Amino acid sequence: MRTILGIETSCDETSVAVVDEGRTVRANLIATQFDLHAKFGGVVPEIASRAHLEVLDPLIEEALHVAGASADDIDGIAVTSQPGLIGALLIGVTAAKALAWAWNKPLIGVNHIHAHATSAAMAVDVAPWPAVALVVSGGHTSLYHVRDFDSITPLGATVDDAAGEAFDKVASILKLGYPGGPVVDRLAATGNPLATRFPRTMFDANSLDFSFSGLKTAVLYHVHGAGRTTGGLERLNEQSIADICASFSAAVVDVLVEKTLRAVQREGVRTVVVGGGVAANSMLRIRLAGRCARDSVALHVTPPVYCTDNAAMIAALGYHLLQRGHSNDWTLSAVATTSQS
Ligand code: KG4
Ligand code: ZN
User: Fold this and answer.
1) Which residue positions in the chain have pLDDT lower than 50?
2) Ligand 1: which of 33, 136, 137 to mutate, judged by most atoms within 8 Å of the beta carbon?
3) How far apart are CA 246 and CA 269, in angstroms?
4) Which pTM does this prediction carry?
């Protein structure tokens, strides 16, 4: 049996997990920094690093306790080494190196987006590769061809806003609070997705890239009037807000579904996997399931608990990388960006 301790500190959640064989999650603890950043309206990098530093050691101890494991039971330390906030990543990477050194265990650097792309595999008996992976989160919207856990090729990515970012910005335009995805999702259920035809940016017929910033602006002008950025919200009643949420969600989902199936066609695979926070979106789950069923494509959506940032997916991918002979030496460093993610 291979038991991996996973550490995730790339943004504003500190998470530590203990996972057996990339599938059996014995502990997956998440300490969110939400309250620390809420009053600033976004994540403040220095505050994030400081908070990771304060909670990481006790969280590691607690995760081992919850898992009923000791250092002797751990076969490797997996840590998110890229991409993310550099100071935040450094806290996790430094802690992982210290543990790997002290306990004499292999160290495995994990790409956070690759972990989202492969997280659906945690819930299936047989690894679903080859597959097209759609990663939709607050920071990323990307398509990948996953041939194996260590063979992940980028196919396309957003050129501006991520899908989750668009959900958050539309929620902010409608003054629905942060993070906006879940509340827009809930209101969309009672709205009419055909009420307003918001733009769908498809680029040319072969493109697998995304753009959501024009859509966000279209919602802004729809709410306030052409060229205006304030003053319109008061005129909207509950139903028209629900209609905007539904029509906006439909525009995002149409593009995500269309491009994902376009990638399936182009790459000649028969399986789709989906991960990241926006994978929890109900309209996306329903429409993608319908389209995949129609086209006889297998679909595996990551269970909601592993959609948002968590260390279980880092430990899981770390396990598969270690199985395939990948580990890092002490030169492993934190990297803020990946060229294509
Ligand atoms: O993966 P995640 O936890 O963080 C990043 O790595 O970015 O994703 C968070 C994003 C937020 O933008 C949030 O609004 C969005 O996922 N989100 C949703 C839903 N639940 C979370 N978006 C749409 N519908 C949802 N149900
Ligand atoms: Zn993430």
Assistant:
1) 340-341
2) 137
3) 31
4) 0.94
